[in-house]
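tool_call: predict_structure(chain=1)
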Amino acid sequence: MLMDEVDFQILDILMRNSRATYREISEKIKISEVAVHKRIKKLGGVIKSFTILVDQRALGKETTAILMLKCEVGKTKEIAEKLSHVEDITEVYTTLGEYDLIAKIRTRDTHTLKKLVEKKISMLEGITEIRASIVFECFKEEPNLILCP
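tool_result:
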């Protein structure tokens, strides 16, 4: 899809505030509300969803961990799909390098994390190694990239 500077401006506004109204967007970039509506509709293939960024700690998810997993040959995608359905796993990536998969977990505490790894993740057939790192502090958590046209 070919995008122009106005499309990038609209995306930038929506990434910062997904609740921005057509009027607010139109006032910021100096085009009509109708034009904003049409452009957002046209961006349907680019915009995956309108969402919010939640403070996980405020919801009782105090512990963040990064898991690095090695898988048997040919099992990576199947394991990734299974992990993507496990509660408290927020992100799953297949990777090139020492590990086949990386998963991000948000859970109540280290006890809950231990149970999750022992009772759900390590039981998945095809996982040959699991390494975990617990996050002490997050300095940047930006779900969207800054856009440049």
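agent: The chain has two domains: 5-45, 56-134. Proceeding to next step.
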